[in-house]
Write a structure and sequence with these properties.
With 233 residues, this protein is of the alpha/beta class. The protein folds into 2 domains: 21-66; 68-231, Glutaredoxin (3-Layer(aba) Sandwich), CATH 3.40.30.10. It is built from 7 helices and 7 strands, in the order αααβββαβαβαββα. It has helices at 2-17, 25-45, 49-64, 106-117, 131-137, 159-166, 197-231; strands spanning 73-76, 81-83, 91-96, 122-127, 145-149, 172-176, 182-187. A 7-stranded mixed sheet has the order 2-1-5-4-3-6-7, with helices on both faces. α2 (25-45) runs antiparallel to α3 (49-64) and α4 (106-117) packs parallel to α7 (197-231). The longest helix is centred in the last third of the chain and has 35 residues, at 197-231. It is globular, with a radius of gyration of 18 Å.
Amino acid sequence: MSRLILLFIFFISVSVFGQHDQVSFSEAISTHLPKYKIKANKAYRTHNVERAEFLFDSLVNYCLKGSKLDNFKVRDLKKKVVQLDEFKKPVYLITYASWVIPTEGEIPALNKLAAKYNDQVDFVILFWDNRTTTKELAKKYHKNIKVLYVDEMQNNSSYVVKMMKHSLGFPTTFLLDKEKRITDIRRSVSHPYGIEFERSFDLNYDSFSKAISLLLINESSRYSNNTKESLTP
C-alpha cells in the first residue's frame, strides 16, 4: 500500500513540476512547510531519524525542486549589496553559521573543488552571522568561493532570506542552474568526529563532487535541449 501511495505522490508531483517555472521558492516553501514541520518534529521527538530524513527528501523532491530561488539581497565582506541574480553560472550555494562546526575534511575538500570548477560553477557561502565573525571565517576558504553574510540583528531583507534559515536549517546546500531554478537541496555530510582527516576529506569530497556533477550534467542537458530547439525548423 505504501508503494502505491508513493507512486501516486510521484505522478501528482510530475504534473505539478511542469508548472514550476512559474513557482518561486518562497511560494513553494510557504505552501508546504507547515505540514512538513509537524511531521518532522514528531519524527525527531521519537528519535526516528530515518523518518525525518525521508520527510526532508520528500519535501525537496516533490515540493521544492524546479522552483526558482528568489532574487534575494545580502552583503559581501566589503558591505557591498549582492543579489543572487548577479551570479551567471550554475550556483553551488551553502548556508552556514559560525556556531556550526564543520567536519575536519569539509573545508579543504570544498576548497579543492572550488579551485577546479570555478570556471563552470559559482561557489557561494552565505553565513548567518555578523560581518566581523564572517570576515574571520572567510580566511579558511579558497579565493574562488564568494563569502556573503546576513546579520539578523540588522537584517531587513527579503522574506526568502529568513525562510532559507528558519525553514531548512543549516548547513544546507542549494544547487541552482543558471536561471536560479533549484536542481536539488542537500544537507552536509554527517560523520562521527574524531575520524582521520583523510577519511573525512574523502567523504566530503565525494559528496561535493556528486553535487557539482549534478549541476554540470543538468546544465549540459539544458544546453543540448536548447540547441536542438534552435535547429528545429
